[in-house]
């Protein structure tokens, strides 16, 4: 985003220079204007949006984040935004409806023409989080028996109402998908060739599939769009690359936030209210606070052991820190492998065994180093306790950290829920149990 646009808009709006503001907005692409509006304050944001031309207003509104769209609706009022809302694509309309209060959503839907409302209802009929709720029902299709010339005419006739024409589904009777053909393949070969001779086997998703998984396939395989089907293989809609990219980016932001023990912010940081920032963090802190009680209980349990060998207390931060980091590293690696399809819940045994070996190797290396340092500064007994604990803690932490995301996925829970702070707290408690148990056995206390 161009910071000069943001500064210029603020200055023009502060001077009540509406003509200059409108002229300034016409010089930038809708994506740049949308990114700038998200950072403007509430009154200025609404004023700037009102100054956009009719066509530009739709493009800018579509480029806004859903949370920013909701905020703009609240500022402008239902009547002012109804015209833009009615011209949105059905899938974009559904995303915004999910953000709005039910009363506002119902009122806005009344402003939509009946045919558009029917297409929106098709998308609304699928569960939240499914790819069916993110597909566009506005597409143009051709038949395998069409000539390329006839198919191209069909695209010309229906392409204006279609969200994408670069990947065209090929269907038989009953909307059964048999292939896809690119616009390039319609244009370049002789017009008398049949579509069947140039179509390719399609990549597709079922409407009830998880939207994130389907979107990742679309992005990773670099296709411009792919069909969405029902379980009877009938074509329902298309998932476009721009929607797939938004889904993947939103999932990435959510995973990154949860890995840090918070919920993602829906608006730019400087425009997010303090209450919303607090709300995004407090639940996680409460959960981790309750979990940390386990660590305190373990310390109380081995209080007598600490009184006999006070030196053991000096190594607690080292051991808990290494254990937590080892578990977090494993969890982060496996969560990413899940996201890109390199691992599945059924691979939990293989993943756990791989992380067990990796943890054991890490623990061996760190254990030898810990034994040498502790023996040099204290005695061989303390050195042995530190070395054996590092070996055990690293092995356990890596195994648990690697298995947790897979177990979460199998239970239908977001793997990112098992975030770094949660795993760290778990490893702290278990690591202390291992530490003091080994100390009692080795030192005879």
What keywords describe this structure?
about 450 residues, mainly alpha, MgtE N-terminal fold, CBS-domain, Tetracycline Repressor, domain 2, two-stranded antiparallel ribbon, 21 helices, about 65% helix, transmembrane helix
Oligomer: single chain
User: How does the helix and strand content classify structurally?
Assistant: mainly alpha
Fraction of residues in H or I helices: 55-70%
The CATH homologous superfamily of the largest domain is called: SLC41 divalent cation transporters, integral membrane domain
What is the H-and-E element order? HHHHHHHHHHHEEHEHEEHHHHHHHH
Q: Could you name the ranges where pLDDT drops below 50 across 5 or more consecutive residues?
A: none
Q: Biggest β-sheet: count, sense, barrel?
A: 3 strands, mixed
The number of domains: 3
Global Rg: 29 Å
Would you tell me the overall average pLDDT? 85
CATH architecture of the largest domain: Orthogonal Bundle
Tell me the layout of helices and strands.
Blueprint: H1 3-14, H2 18-25, H3 30-37, H4 42-50, H5 54-63, H6 66-76, H7 78-87, H8 90-99, H9 102-110, H10 114-124, H11 148-158, E1 167-171, E2 177-182, H12 183-187, E3 205-206, H13 211-220, E4 225-229, E5 235-240, H14 241-259, H15 274-301, H16 303-308, H17 311-314, H18 316-339, H19 348-377, H20 380-410, H21 420-443
Parallel strand pairs: 3-4
Antiparallel strand pairs: 1-2, 4-5
Helix pairs in contact: 1-2, 3-5, 4-6, 6-7, 7-9, 8-10, 13-14, 15-21, 18-20, 18-21, 19-20, 20-21
């Amino acid at each position: 985003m161009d910071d000069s646009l943001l500064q210029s808009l603020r200055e023009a709006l502060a001077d009540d220079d509406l003509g200059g503001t409108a002229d300034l907005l016409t010089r930038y692409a809708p994506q740049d204007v949308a990114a700038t509006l998200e950072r403007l304050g509430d009154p200025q944001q609404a004023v700037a949006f009102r100054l956009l031309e009719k066509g530009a207003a739709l493009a800018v509104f579509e480029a806004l984040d859903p949370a920013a769209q909701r905020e703009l609706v609240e500022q402008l009022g239902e009547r002012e935004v109804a015209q833009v809302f009615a011209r949105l694509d059905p899938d974009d309309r559904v995303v915004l409806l999910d953000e709005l209060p039910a009363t506002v959503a119902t009122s806005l839907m009344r402003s939509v023409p009946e045919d558009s409302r029917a297409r929106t209802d098709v998308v609304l009929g699928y569960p939240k989080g499914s790819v069916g709720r993110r597909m566009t029902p506005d597409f143009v299709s051709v038949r395998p028996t069409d000539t390329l010339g006839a198919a191209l005419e069909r695209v010309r006739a229906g392409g204006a109402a279609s969200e994408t024409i670069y990947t065209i589904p090929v269907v038989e009777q009953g909307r059964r998908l048999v292939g896809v053909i690119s616009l390039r393949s319609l244009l370049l070969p002789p017009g008398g060739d049949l579509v069947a001779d140039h179509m390719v086997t399609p990549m597709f998703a079922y409407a009830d599939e998880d939207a994130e998984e389907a979107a990742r396939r679309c992005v990773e395989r670099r296709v411009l769009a792919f069909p969405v089907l029902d379980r009877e293989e009938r074509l329902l809609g298309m998932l476009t690359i721009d929607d797939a990219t938004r889904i993947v980016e939103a999932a990435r932001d959510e995973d990154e936030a949860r890995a840090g023990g918070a919920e993602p912010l829906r608006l730019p940081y400087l425009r997010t209210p303090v209450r919303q920032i607090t709300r995004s963090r407090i639940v996680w802190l409460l959960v981790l606070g309750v979990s940390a009680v386990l660590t305190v209980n373990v310390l109380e349990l081995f209080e007598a052991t600490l009184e006999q060998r006070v030196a053991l207390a000096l190594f607690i931060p080292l051991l808990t820190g290494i254990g937590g980091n080892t578990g977090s590293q494993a969890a982060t690696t496996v969560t990413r492998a899940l996201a890109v399809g390199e691992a599945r819940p059924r691979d939990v045994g293989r993943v756990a065994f791989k992380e067990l070996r990796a943890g054991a190797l890490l623990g061996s290396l760190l254990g030898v180093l810990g034994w040498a340092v502790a023996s040099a500064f204290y005695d061989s007994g303390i050195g042995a306790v530190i070395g054996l604990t590092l070996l055990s803690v690293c092995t356990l932490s890596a195994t648990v950290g690697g298995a947790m995301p897979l177990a979460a996925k199998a239970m239908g829970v977001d793997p990112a829920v098992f975030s770094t702070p949660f795993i760290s707290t778990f490893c702290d408690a278990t690591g202390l149990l291992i530490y003091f148990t080994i100390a009692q056995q080795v030192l005879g206390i």
